[in-house]
Structures are given as structure tokens and as C-alpha cells.
Amino acid sequence: MRTIDLSPLYRSFIGSDHLASLVDAATRTEKQSSYPPYNIEVLDEDKYRVTMAIAGFSKDDVTIEVQDNTLTITGKKPSDDEDSKERKFLHKGISERSFERKFQLGDHVKVLAADMEHGLLHIDMERVIPEAKKPRQIEIGSRLLENN
Question: Where is each SHSP domain found (predicted)?
Fold first, then answer.
């Protein structure tokens, strides 16, 4: 396993401890299975869509949860042992296994909606930056008063 030396970042970035935790989370997600396949699409400057191919799953089989900037999508197939005993395959190329896929969301990214059609799950997101976090220009020689 590769390790990444983040010490140069500590000299030039404020808050790089947060960056280090994001890098650590990204290396953990590399170990995930590639199932189910997905796309991440940029729809607009601050709008995104995750599309996952989950053929064979109904909306009752899938849960979507957001917690601490982590989007978790879980698919659980009900275990129908009787149904699987009746089915015989010459070739089985469609996976019917359960899955869990996690995505790290950037700061201020909100999940807007989820929809499923034709075996594809679409999750729409938008980055909404609060007014207090947007850049503002400071006049030289002026003093800012904070509202406390």
C-alpha cells in the first residue's frame, strides 16, 4: 500500500488536516468493489448527477442516506431461496448481489432528488454555498464589524 506524505501541505495550506482526512477516505474507497458501475456527471457549474446501473433492483431494495458529507447507497436483494432453486441458468451474467457504495461529498453539497428508471438510479446534487462563505472584497483602510 502506498502512503502519501502530506507534510508539504501543512506549510502552505490552512485547514489541511481536513484535506488529509479526505485523502485518507479516498484511499479507503479505492478498495471498494467496482459493482455496481456508476457515472458522475457535471450538469452545471454547481450541479452534479450520480448515475448507477442497478438492473434488477426495485426502489424498495435501495436506500440512500447522507451523513457527515458521505452519500451511502445500499442495495439489498430479498433472499428468495425458493425462487433461486427453481431457476436454472445456462449463463448468468447479471449480478443480483447486494451492494454498498459510498461517495464523499464536498462541503455544502446537498442531495436534491433521486429517481430510478430503466435500471438506472439517478441522484441529483447541488453545491449551495452560504452567503457568509462566498468571497467578498475588503476595502483597504476599512474596518469590518461582525454581528455578534
Answer: 29-143
Q: What percent of the chain has pLDDT over 90?
A: 41
Grid cell digits, residue 31: 478498495
The residue with cell 428508471 is 117
Kindly report the CA angle at 50 between 47 and 52, in degrees rounded to 5? 165
Q: How far apart are CA 132 and CA 37, in angstroms?
A: 37
More confident residue, 131 or 21: 131
Q: Are 119 and 55 in contact (CB under 8 A)?
A: yes
Q: How many residues does the chain have?
A: 148
Q: How far apart are CA 52 and CA 44, in angstroms?
A: 19
Strand partners, 70: 67, 104
Return the closest-CA partner of residue 120 out of 32, 73, 51.
51
Domains of the chain: 1-31 (no CATH), 35-132 (2.60.40.790)
Q: How many CB atoms lie within 10 A of CB 66?
A: 15
C-beta atoms surrounding 33 within 10 Å: 9
Q: List, in order, residues 6 or more apart from 52 with CB less than 8 Å away.
A: 36, 37, 38, 73, 101, 120, 121, 123
